[in-house]
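ENTRY TYPE: paired fold submission
RECORD: A
CONTENT: sequence, then structure tokens
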Amino acid sequence: MPCGLEEIRVRAGKPVQYRFAGGNTTGVNILQSDIEEMINYLSGYSIHAIAPQLAAGYFTVEGGHRVGIAGQMGCDGERVTAVSEIASLNIRIAHQIKGIAMPLMPYIRDENSIYNTLVVSRPGEGKTTFLRDCIRILSDGCDGKNALKVSVVDERSEIAACYNGVAQNDVGKSSDVLDNCPKSLGMRMLLRSMSPDVIAVDELGGESDIEALNQLVSCGIRILGSVHGTNADDLRRKMLPHAIERFVFIDHDKKGVRCYSIYDEAHRLLYSTVCGIGADK
């Protein structure tokens, strides 16, 4: 049996699929009634409590595991108003890799705070995993430096994986999480309410996100975020704030081994690491 369960795919009328890091296997055929019972069980037999999350296409269960849904939706223009029939589930198994960001931390952390930092990669390369570990390290303190107050906007419950408002992933002792809140709104709320040293946010991109980032910078708040992209040209097209001082690019080779490279604001390579073996530049 392959190790490292990553996803369980459940589809009405089809065999369940188990997706592992080392391969896939299939199980028994699933009926529509099975999916209905799974939704009831996973929601704690209170499906109305997760209705707002269902309208967004997913919900988070205890342990930080995320359940994506597909099926028949009722819509009003661009807004989902009801979920009438759920025919597919994608249960993404939560994994946290601690220490993955530690080799790059000397280039992200300065004496009193951090450099404004963006983590950049294509989808599925590990941006959120790396960002989560940065948050944990910074809010716990490291290398003799004090812990920082890190406020997290977790719009899709992927960083902290909150369940009933409590983080299921370890995001450190000095972090505060605003779960299931739009990024631009959440950044402004945390700026007013939590007196953060750092605001962390995943998958920036919209104009409202960039406007909120500029407001944070003008108020002296340090930024730790992630964005989809592959190179500096991608970032220029997104009109990101000029105050960004560090860029962490994540990529992988043909064998799937990830490479982490950090650049300064002039896009000069500072450090790169593959499987924990680093090289200063």
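RECORD: B
CONTENT: sequence, then structure tokens
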Amino acid sequence: MRDPLLVVIAGPTASGKTNLSVELAERLRAAGREAEIIAADSVTVYRGLEIGAAKPSAGERARVPHHLLDVADPTTAFTAGDFTRLARPIVERLQAEGKVPILAGGSGFYLRALLRGMASGDENQEEAATIKRNLEARGAAEGFAGLYRELLSQDPGSVSTVHPNDHYRIVRALQAMALHKKPWSELNKEARATPPAFPGLRFFSLELEKEELFRRIQQRTEAMLEAGLLAEVEGLLKAGVPADGKPLLSVGYAEAVACLRGSLAFERLGEEIEKNTRRLAKSQLTWFRGEELATWLKVPHRENLFTALGL
């Protein structure tokens, strides 16, 4: 049996991770190694979120087996811990079968949790649950903007890893700091220093010129709106998915909710999605630049990836 291999294809949103992961799997198959893709994305895990999540197409899924798409109910909050619990046995099984798992996605926190463990380590679950309930109650009563300011005042370094719209991550960071008496950024740094949990890890992050990345973001935004993003969100709300739940707070969905609720004019919808997607991409790039394991792939991504892997 060949040496185990685990490939990560990470990078900012709209950088081409999905297409590249499919092309890599097919190239590996041609070289005699079967490969399967594990989506490392905090939105594509949810059932019913299709257009705004930019999930792999039916054709792409038919070409290569995919895992961890549509595994969570959108009325629930799927966490990095949930992702690790589901992804770990898939990686272990595929490697045991001599196959190559390809982790593809832009959720750096999910990838780090799987590959190096959670930033928080062992915790008193009863105390953790109490702190979480109190923080969530404060967020609901006072607004999460206040909690975000509190987080930054306690740990300015967390600005690069916690988005102001990510209510779950804001609560998690404050909770972890209360439990461990350490800044969230320091807990993340300690986790990054942990050796990878799986053998044969090759971690690649996609790099694009800013103008090209922004062009792709604009194209994706236009395509989502033309495909019916507003209708999709309207259907999710009617189905009982909470507007302030984790799935609909993600970029693209949050703006669509605001538009449907009348707080954002339709004429500004695309502009707001593009602006917030660019902010998300910047945050993702900052995260992956702090990942010591990452090898940055310049354009052309396909050729440079295949060369790096000797394919």
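NOTES ON RECORD B: The chain has three domains: 6-119+196-209+293-308, 125-188, 212-281. The first helix runs from residue 17 to 30.
STATUS: closed
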